[in-house]
Amino acid sequence: MNTKTNDLVKAGLLLSLGILLPIIFHQFKLGGPVFLPMHIPVLLAGFIAGKKYGFLVGILTPFLSSVFTGMPPIYPTAVSMAFELGTYGLISGLLFETIKSENKITKTYISLIIAMLAGRIVSGIANYILFTFAMGKPYLLKMFLTSAFITPIPGIIIQLILIPFLVIFLSKVTITGGQNFER
């Protein structure tokens, strides 16, 4: 299988997982804003399918999830999440491809942390515009800090533990056709 097809298949699988994981979490009454189940496949898409597919998976996942499952609501949540998740996928893939480090764990953590911060900043900007200008409601710094850094502490911890483990693990796994998940 050629690299483009391989990356497209990975992206499709992770897009599907981005729709499925929130459903599973909600079945166990584990809230999306706390555990961030949609973020995991998007970040992984950047790492294992590259920046372009990571960006596309990030943009499409909240909208498709909203259409198929009703969560998150399209406006303003899915719109804001599309900016945030698109940034996650783009930045994680871009940095993972460009950072020159032999230590894959260091490279993964640097890419992950910067992507997580960039995505949250983009989310804050998107929410500020959506709430303040489009909806006529204030979006305060306290709201941003709470929704981006306080409420999702469990999800942030899960991402910091799980994503590097999965990136390292998947880089060692060989799939049919002799290709592995490594970029």
UniProtKB/TrEMBL annotation:
Record flagged with keyword Manganese: no
Transmembrane segments: 7-25, 53-71, 77-96, 108-131, 143-170
Key word Phosphoprotein present: no
MF GO annotations: transmembrane transporter activity
Keyword field: Membrane, Transmembrane, Transmembrane helix
Listed Gene3D superfamilies: 1.10.1760.20
Highest taxon above the source species: Bacteria
InterPro entries with a match to the protein in the record: ECF_trnsprt_substrate-spec
Designated name of the protein: ECF transporter S component
Annotated source species: Fervidicella metallireducens AeB
